[in-house]
Amino acid sequence: MNENPADLAPELCVLAAAVAGLMAGMFLPRRRQWPVPAVCSAGLVAGLAFAGAAATRPGLMAFDAFSVDAITHVTRITVLGSTLAVVLLAAGRVRGHPRESEHHVLILLSALGTIMLGTSSDLLVLVAAYLLASIPAYALAGFGKDAPGTEAALKYYLMGALLGVLMLGGVTLLSGVGRGTAYPVLRAGLAGAPPAAVAAGLVALLAGLLFKAGAAPGHYWVPDVTEGAPPAVAAFVTTVPKIGAFAALYRFGAETSPDGWAALLAVVAAATMTLGNLAAFGQDNVRRLLAYSTVSQAGYLLVPVAMAGRTDLARPALLYFVAAYAVTNLGAFAVVVAAGRDDLAGYAGLLRASPLLGLSLVVCLLGFVGTPPTAVFVGKVLMFGAALDGDHAWLAVVAAVNTVASVFYYLRWIVPLFRRPAGPPRRARGATALAAAAALLSLALGIAAGAALAA
Amino acid sequence: MTFLPGWPGGLAVDGLSAVLLVTLGAVLAAVLAFAAGQGYGARFFGLMLLFAAAMAVTVTATDLVLLLMGWEVMGAMSYALIGYEWWDERRVRSAGVAFLTTRAADMGLYAAAGFAIAGAHSLRLDDLAASGTPWRDLIAAGLVVSALGKSAQLPFSFWLSRAMDGPSPVSALLHSATMVAAGAYLLIRVHPLLAATGWAATLVTWAGAATALVLGAVALAQRDLKQLLAASTCAQIGFMVLGAGAGALGGGTAHLVAHAAVKSLLFLCAGVWLGVLGTKRLDALQGAARRHRTVGASFGVGALALAGVPPLSLWVTKDEILAGAGGSPALLAVGLAASVLSAAYAAKALLAAFRPVAGGGAFRVPLAQQAPLVPLAFAAAVLGALGLPPVADAWRRLLGVPDGSGPGAWMFALSGVLAALTVGAVMAVRRIPEPAWALHWLWLEDAVSAVVVRPAFAAARGLARFDDRVVDGAVRGAARGVQAVAGLAGRRVEFRVGGLVAAVGRAARGLGALARRPQTGQVHMYYAQAAVVLAVLVVVAVLAG
């Protein structure tokens, strides 16, 4: 058994940064807590460096519960990069806040749980990771202590509690009929288990993971939290936990391959993308619009998950799409943070008032649609390829129809940008730079897709 | 030098090419010196040099492709030079007539090249005779047509009349060492091919003989010095073509060289008079030769040589040709008749130029215009030496043609006496019949205009009308039809499609509203919905598993 802690160096870096941040926050004066985000950022950067180094080495298994393979590498790099972006995005907003250090530490702990979600290949570790990823996020949602934030936190928590309990039940059921909790054991055990018990356990397990992924039927929290929580937190909870959830879903599907997996996930994917797109049609609040957009994107992301083990295209499709989605979603939220407006009318004339910000938003929204040469386009192409290759042509058709329908509400946001500006633009240099960087990264990932996929 | 990869050929200088190159160079130098005295611009000299260069390529080419290139460039340059004074519409039209006529005949050369590739699998001029039937006959036919056209032989002669509208130095070059000489050169060069077909050599022989006779008569009837000289060129080239057909290659080449000297000399003299006296009409040129000694004497020598008066050059070379054609009495008779005619028209020119008239003092001619006349006159006088037995043998060896028996002494005597008598008779009679058919060059241009040009234009107009009414009409009709259909579609179909799109939009909005219904904001409803959906998923999983 491999018990070398160095194999989990990125996770340990994040943990160390979180602990250091917590300790520093206890002793630093309340008004001078700037070292905390610095320490947290340093920990994330160090984690990124270790993750990048680990990506060049062959895969292995650590502590019999953590797989260090391509999925883990992409999960680590995407989660760490996204978390770094969120920390930078939030740093200005919570500067001087009485609980500034807690904010950053909670973000780091949730990110640590997310990485573990994507890394674990054991149901018990998965449950622990689920809790670690969720509980700090509940606290973050209510961080503002205002009415919408409190309501959002409560709904988030209640949904998470119900579906988490269901997940625990599912894990119990599966470990009972499968005689183990490690995926390789389950693979053998589930094959001979009673199908109805396996089906019930599988759906119960999925309930928790779909909650983290923001997919139906665990998506109810997404619009409320996105609208009610502080914008940076909204960006975090709609981006980071999903990465780990999809990685965990894919890993479970690919490594245990239970019966009926593809059909179950395909139904969930089709329902999620359709629901998200249709509900986004009438939204005038950009945060709710983005929330439903993330639900529909979760639907697309479930397509390669459903195809896990059926085609070689599924894994690159999932990994590329999830990274592209994270970059694009963070860019869009950075624009919302920088513009400081939640209503669609507030974005009139943004392209003239602040060309950089407007252009970044156009790139990100067109990226969501899947317009070349953005990163999501490549992800979507791979996703369609995986669906067709996995003999689920109907799913590809549903995804294509949904993509066409989604153009409508993204354009509803893009069109006002070209109007005459209503008032002077708001200055938010950091968020603007982050939005521009995300847009550029989206274009770069789209253009250099060949090289990125080959690596 | 190889021009086309895989197709041997290129440029090479042999005896015949060398003779023609030297002739070309000498005449070109004389003509350019003369033209420099008349003060032409850079465009003129550029075109003249290109013209001469094209002729040089033509005579040194060993394959049909290069020959064709030189041939075509020469034709284009002749157009540019005849129409040199482009502001005069008649000259430009003349250039067009000359160019289109020679160009039409040139099609034969293109066809010959194509047939050569198909039949002989070689473009080399040497290999053409070896191709099989019917290719050999087709190649020969194409070559003969293009050579007769370039050399202004019957029935293409009329273009040379129109070419007289060009400047005199152009005429001097075009009538002597280039253009018209190219046709004769080509026929001499491909004589083995003509001989191999059998019919082609005979055809060429009689075409040359007919041209020599008929255009001789035409020349005799002309009232314009340059027109007279032009028709005489056709007639003299006719002798060369006769020689090329009958196998008198040495005589034909010698005639070409001597004629080049004579004719360039005469045209330059005509150019001097045209420049000084402003006319080329024979009746207005009365006594012109007496008014400047050098020009007059040169013209006298040239005209006497043209008449074939012993011992000047053309007397000897023409007899060489006639001796080579001696096998056929009819041919000999035609040739002698043509000789008599040439003596007659030369005498007519002499008569006009030397007739003593009262008044009209001497005039001055620039040295640059006088200087070239003297060596040309000298050459016109002495080139007959090429026919003297020892020189003639060397000449034949140079050209690489078989030794033929030289003309008998009786032939020399007969033609010399005939020429002298004719000149004397014309001088004595002083009146020359000028039949209208001869004056108007047999109405060849009108005939071509009636038979070829007008029908072609009529057909073109008819086709244009067909294009306008039928083809264009169909296109316009189609456009109108499409517009009508589009209007119909716009009224009947667009409305329904638009309605359909609007319905889809309404349905999508309705579904969107429906999709937001579950989002009640109340957690117990979320719980209930999630539980129901999960139960449904369990059913799905059981059924799928």
Describe the structure using short key phrases.
heterodimer; A: 455 residues; mainly alpha; two-stranded antiparallel ribbon; 1% strand; B: 545 residues; 2 domains; 22 helices
Task: Give your account of this protein's structure.
The complex is a heterodimer of chains A (455) and B (545). By secondary structure, chain A is mostly helical. Chain A has a domain at 260-454. Chain A is 76% helix and 1% strand. Chain A is built from 19 helices and two strands. Chain A has helices spanning 9-27, 35-55, 70-91, 100-119, 123-141, 147-178, 183-191, 195-213, 221-228, 231-256, 261-280, 286-306, 314-339, 350-353, 355-369, 375-389, 393-417, 429-447, 449-454, and strands spanning 60-62, 66-68. A two-stranded antiparallel ribbon of chain A has the order 1-2. The longest helix of chain A has 32 residues, at 147-178. Chain B is an all-alpha fold and 545 residues long. Chain B has two domains: 15-356 and 365-434, no CATH class; 451-538. Chain B is built from 22 helices and no strands. Chain B has helices at residues 15-38, 42-60, 64-82, 89-119, 135-150, 158-163, 168-174, 180-189, 191-197, 199-221, 225-246, 249-277, 293-307, 313-324, 329-354, 367-370, 373-382, 389-399, 409-429, 436-439, 444-516, 523-544. The termini of chain B are far apart. The interface between A and B is medium-sized, with 41 and 26 residues. Chain B: It is a multi-pass membrane protein. Chain B: It is found in: Endomembrane system; Membrane. Chain B: GO terms for molecular function: NADH dehydrogenase (ubiquinone) activity; NADH dehydrogenase activity. Chain B: Pfam families: Proton_antipo_M. Chain B: Residues 61-339 form the NADH:quinone oxidoreductase/Mrp antiporter transmembrane domain.
Tally the helices of chain B: 22
Poorly predicted runs of chain A: none
The SSE string of chain A, one letter per element, is: HHEEHHHHHHHHHHHHHHHHH
Number of strands of chain B: 0
Largest sheet of chain B: none
Largest interface, Cβ cutoff 8 Å? A-B, 41 and 26 residues
- The Rg value of chain A, from CA coordinates, equals 21 Å
Helix content of chain A: over 70%
**SSE pattern of chain B, N- to C-terminal:** HHHHHHHHHHHHHHHHHHHHHH
Transmembrane segments (chain B): 15-35, 42-59, 65-84, 96-118, 138-160, 172-190, 196-221, 228-250, 256-276, 297-317, 329-351, 371-389, 409-429, 526-544
InterPro entries (chain B): ND/Mrp_TM, NU5C-like
Protein name (chain B): NADH:ubiquinone oxidoreductase subunit 5 (Subunit L)/multisubunit Na+/H+ antiporter MnhA subunit
Keywords (chain B): Membrane, Transmembrane, Transmembrane helix, Ubiquinone
